[in-house]
Design brief:
Number of domains: 1
Distance between the termini: 38 Å
Strand content: under 5%
Helix content: 55-70%
Order of helices and strands: HHHHHHHHHEEHHHHHHHH
Radius of gyration: 21 Å
Number of helices: 17
Number of strands: 2
Mean pLDDT: 76
Largest sheet: 2 strands, antiparallel
Strand order of the largest sheet: 1-2
Length: 367
């Protein structure tokens, strides 16, 4: 089953439930839980999309690259926490990383920002705090563990691969009409306008549009844009709209699955999983990979499993999704070689599994 078929499957299942017994108390409970999760999460998705859109339009990749040192482990440590200054979700961070690597950012630092950026940012911290009723232990755990995993994997990947081995030539990829980030592309238009390029830049810095204008766009999109604040603001809102609509249906599907679990699955089944810590962690990791949620909204899905899954399993869900899921797997292919993707995915899953399992030793502190 492809990712594109998930909305159709969701709609079919939802209609079946609606027609089965519309007056049943269980269906009413399902609707209440589902709507509450969606209404809590949507504002944060909207804010995150707007922030990402304005970063795309107003913050150049050159500026971001100059803010980081070029060498050493310090670069990796700073890059992993750069989301605090440049808050982007995982849908927006891949094209940003693609541009930064083209501007000479070390590969290890790029990996650290790729993994840490969607977790180490104030919007995710706020949404996690709200989802968990301002239990700041969960917020600190998520951001702290996410930062540590990003730094560790960034340093290790820098040891395993050189930039030439890791980054693929994406010249052909920029010709795609649509990317996993949700931005829609238009074909390149041949004009007599000269497009600026750099010898050291493997990725296009700008794409011409029919008006002869160009835009340094992180995901390679060719949204028509005029010079000045008004044009950039319009482009920012266009990016925000694309990102919001592209990932919004995954939130709906995730909220529906969480509501189903709370309404129809016997709590004793979850209690048996809680007795097997590794099994519950693996289940929540798999759920995060399949749901493709945005990091600014996934905390509401994880929090809906409170009382059903132990906190380490919930934390596994919160750490896995922003670093690796099905949509990210597709997006990674536009930047990295297949070997790098396999190694990166393996390291992410192993790190999250070990981290969540290790949290079992702190269960008394977390409860």
């Amino acid at each position: 089953m492809s990712i594109d078929s998930l909305p159709v499957l969701f709609l079919t299942v939802a209609i079946v439930f609606l027609l089965s017994d519309p007056e049943s108390s269980s269906l009413n409970a399902l609707a209440i839980v589902f709507i509450s999760i969606v209404l809590e999460a949507i504002p944060f998705m909207l804010v995150g999309s707007l922030v990402g859109g304005f970063i795309e339009a107003f913050v150049s990749r050159e500026r971001m690259a100059t803010l980081l040192p070029r060498k050493g482990w310090l670069t990796v440590c700073i890059a992993a926490g750069a989301g605090l200054v440049f808050p982007v979700c995982e849908c927006a961070v891949v094209p940003v990383v693609r541009r930064l690597t083209g501007k000479g950012l070390p590969f290890s630092a790029a990996i650290a920002y790729l993994l840490g950026g969607p977790i180490m940012n104030p919007i995710v911290a706020a949404s996690t705090a709200l989802a968990y009723a301002f239990d700041w232990r969960i917020v600190v755990l998520r951001l702290g563990l996410g930062y540590g995993i990003a730094v560790a994997i960034g340093l290790l990947m820098g040891r395993l691969f050189t930039r030439a081995e890791a980054i693929k030539d994406s010249g052909a990829a920029s010709q795609n009409n649509a990317l996993a980030c949700g931005c829609h592309h238009i074909p390149l238009v041949h004009t007599h306008h000269k497009i600026r390029s750099e010898k050291s830049q493997p990725f296009p810095l700008a794409i011409a549009n029919p008006a002869g204008n160009s835009m340094d766009c992180g995901c390679g999109c060719s949204h028509p844009v005029s010079d000045g604040w008004i044009g950039k603001a319009g482009a920012a809102f266009t990016h925000a709209m694309d990102d919001f609509l592209a990932v919004g249906h995954y939130l709906i599907i995730g909220a529906f699955i969480a509501a189903l679990a709370q309404t129809y699955i016997d709590r004793s089944s979850f209690l048996s999983l809680a007795a097997a810590p590794v099994l519950s962690v693996v289940l929540m990791m798999a759920l995060a990979i399949l749901l493709n949620l945005c990091s600014e909204a996934d905390a509401f899905i994880a929090a809906s499993f409170r009382g059903l899954m132990p906190i380490p399993a919930q934390m596994a869900f919160l750490l896995t999704g922003p670093m690796f899921d099905l949509k990210l797997l597709l997006m990674y292919q536009s930047v990295f070689t297949r070997k790098v993707i396999v190694v990166l995915a393996s390291l992410i899953l192993a790190a999250v599994l070990l981290t969540a399992t290790g949290l079992e030793m702190l269960k008394g502190v977390l409860q």
